[in-house]
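job 3f2a | input accepted
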Amino acid sequence: MNAKQALAKAGLQVPELSDKLFFSIREVSDVCGVEPHVLRYWETEFKHIKPVKKSGNRRFYRHRDVYAVLQIKHLLYDLNFTIRGAKKRLLNGDLEDIVEQKDSQSVLRQLKQELMEINKLLD
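job 3f2a | predicted structure (123 res):
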């Protein structure tokens, strides 16, 4: 499963990216909903974001960089990970593992609900 599929499985809106090879920091900012200064900071914190730097230190992001930004944003903003926790999670596994963990938690909640209903029937 690639990053785009894993993001979609997590229930995120995955934007359709154009066929361009590279995106400017402004384009990535607009697509991901993250300010450019945040993207620059995340580059220093996460090895998964590696834009190509051209003349004048201008950054150009590839598709995989955009999907990495979306993964990191999901970890930090939706799942409330800290930077340190998100780094650790990305080192231990990709978003697919996180999705599986989230699914297992919902299964456990559903199982608990069913057990409580059975308990009511037995009373």
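job 3f2a | The two ends are 46 Å apart (CA to CA).
job 3f2a | closed
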